Amino acid sequence: KRSKMAEVVGFIASAKTAVTETYASTNDLTTLTNAKVGIAATGTAQGAYITSLDVAGNGTITATLNTEIDTNCTGAALTLTPSIVAATGLLSWAGSSIAACTKFVPANFRS
Fold first, then answer.
1. Is the distance from CB of 103 to CB of 70 less than 8 angstroms?
2. Which of 56, 80, 88, 97 would be a feasible disulfide site paired with 61, CB 3.0-4.6 Å?
3. CB neighbour list of residue 70: distance below 8 Å, 6 or more residues apart
């Protein structure tokens, strides 16, 4: 089940790169969308284990899980939220997930 979750994290990592590059070129996190960062449309299934991968206006990336990893994780979301580091202007990232999926996700998504 962890290997399945690794695929989900891989999709999130791709979106993270897209958000970071878009932020670097626009210096703006407030108006981001899937289209603006260059990933598939909002609500579009991206892989075997997620139903959608979405970028919110503040750069938060949300992957919604389907039934294929674990029934306790069905419909759960893994999120990766950026914040701007004032001293450098670079992005810092914080991940989170629901408690039922904690044993399957990497440490940086355990909340």
1. no
2. 80
3. 1, 100, 101, 104
Confidence (pLDDT) at 3: 87
Euclidean distance between the first and final Cα of the chain, in Å?
19
The alpha-carbon radius of gyration of the chain (Å, integer) is: 14
For residue range 59-75, what is the model confidence (pLDDT) as tens digits?
Answer: 999 999 988 888 888 88
Question: In DSSP terms, which residues pair with 81 in a beta bridge?
Answer: 94
